[in-house]
Amino acid sequence: MTGFTHAYICATCGVQYEPSLRPPASCMVCDDARQFIGWDGQTWTTLGELRADHANRIEDLEPGLTGIGTQPNFAIGQRALLVRTEHGNLLWDCITLIDDATVESVRRLGGIDAIAISHPHYYSAMIEWSQEFDARVYLHEEDRSWVMRQSPRISFWQGETLALFGGLSLVRLGGHFPGATVCHWPSGAGGAGAILSGDVLQVVPDRRFVSFMYSYPNLIPLPAHVVARIARRVSEFRFDRIYGAWWDRVVQHDGRRAVARSAERYLAALATEAEEVEL
Predict the structure, then answer these.
(1) Are 176 and 217 in contact (CB under 8 A)?
(2) Cα 87 from chain centroid (whole Å)
(3) Is-contact 85 92, C-beta < 8 A?
(4) Can you tell me the distance from the alpha carbon of 256 to that of 240, in angstroms, rounded to the nearest whole number?
(5) Which of 83, 179, 197, 251 could hold 143 in an S-S bridge, CB 3.0 to 4.6 Å?
(6) How is residue 57 annotated by DSSP?
(7) What is the pLDDT of residue 272?
């Protein structure tokens, strides 16, 4: 009897792999120090199984911006952002679940012209989304090796900035991953500008600050010089708001200053720690 292939999905990180008869032996994304294997060991699911007991919440966050996130929470639990401009719609970051209800809702909002993703933890089911909407996927070249499902729709970009449509631009910050990227949306926050950051700039529970880490679940910090470079790069852009990776992780105002004071606090903590070690 001939078996069936499935594009298996890691239940811990939500990343979809190439179709195969059996699940992969392990998840390369979760084996890395920036992630972790689930407490129950490596487990896999499929889109069909996920659709059976999950659905997507779709909610307008401000004019021109809609959040899309899965309920109940799945894998890392990030929500995607659909940015609507006069020249096209961008899906920022991605989630694993895509179903008929979601597709219908997104088509009513104008569809998706391009997909851009901050870093490999959110690659999820990007190929399913790109096929459904015939959209190109923009990933930074530095993170090419983390693509677990290939597609001719993927465009790997190089350098520090990529201009898209509607004034949107992708900005490589590095840090969390070599190609870690944020999206600058100059029309966001009522024209004051917004940064869509995933967790490259991690909006912390205080929501007046962000943080910078190599690994969030394993609490591995970034070196001081990397944080300083990220802060300098972000300061080149005009923005007031920062949309993090989860529904409630948003710096509503003074985002540019929030990054600066967060970097100052981070660097001061590292400097103090270095002095204590020297003693």
Answers:
(1) no
(2) 23
(3) no
(4) 6
(5) 179
(6) E
(7) 66
Structure tokens, 277: 């070690």
Instruction: Please provide the distance, in angstroms rounded to a whole number, between the alpha carbons at the two ends of the chain.
Output: 69
* Of the candidates 72, 131, 133, the residue with the CA atom closest to the CA atom of residue 108: 133
Q: Which residues pair with 65 in a beta bridge?
A: 62, 83
The DSSP result for 155-172, as a single string, is EEE-SSEEE-STT-EEEE
Residue 175 · residue 214 · CB < 8 Å: yes
What is the Cα–Cα distance from 149 to 47, expressed in whole angstroms?
14
Q: What is the pLDDT of residues 46-105, one digit of tens each?
A: 999 999 999 999 999 999 999 999 999 999 999 999 999 999 999 999 999 999 999 999
pLDDT of residue 3: 60
Give the per-residue pLDDT at 278.
41
Where does the pLDDT of residue 1 fall: very low under 50, low under 70, confident under 90, or very high at 90 and above? Answer: very low
pLDDT at residue 2 above 80?
Answer: no
Q: Do residues 14 and 74 touch, judged by C-beta distance below 8 A? A: yes
- Is the sign of the CA dihedral 180, 185, 188, 192 positive or negative? positive
